[in-house]
Amino acid sequence: MSNWLNTIVSHLQTRAARDDRGQTAVEYLGIIAVVVAIVLAITGTDIGQSIYDAITQKIAEVTGG
Predict the structure, then answer these.
(1) Residue 7 falls inside a structural domain
(2) Cα(34)–Cα(26) distance, rounded to whole angstroms?
(3) What CA–CA distances, in Å, run from 24 to 14, 19, 29, 30, 51?
(4) 3-state DSSP call for residue 27?
(5) How many structural domains compose the chain?
(6) Which residue range is the domain that position 49 belongs to?
(7) Largest Cα–Cα distance in the chain?
(8) Is 11 a domain residue?
(9) Is residue 3 domain-resident?
(10) Which among 15, 65, 26 is positioned nearest to 7, based on CA atoms?
(11) What is the pLDDT of residues 5-56, one digit of tens each?
């Protein structure tokens, strides 16, 4: 049991010591790229205006104006 516990603790220490900063930065850049692509798709097409009109209509309904 002690050998198994030492193996698990050693594995967890190795895993915790890894440097994941590079991978995290790449993941953030990927998320930003997807968000930018969505924003460009919405603003570059007529669907952006349709969404804007629907939102302003619902806001007007809620506020009574």
Answers:
(1) no
(2) 12
(3) 18, 10, 9, 10, 32
(4) helix
(5) 1
(6) 19-63
(7) 72
(8) no
(9) no
(10) 15
(11) 778 777 777 776 666 666 677 888 889 999 988 888 877 778 878 888 999 9
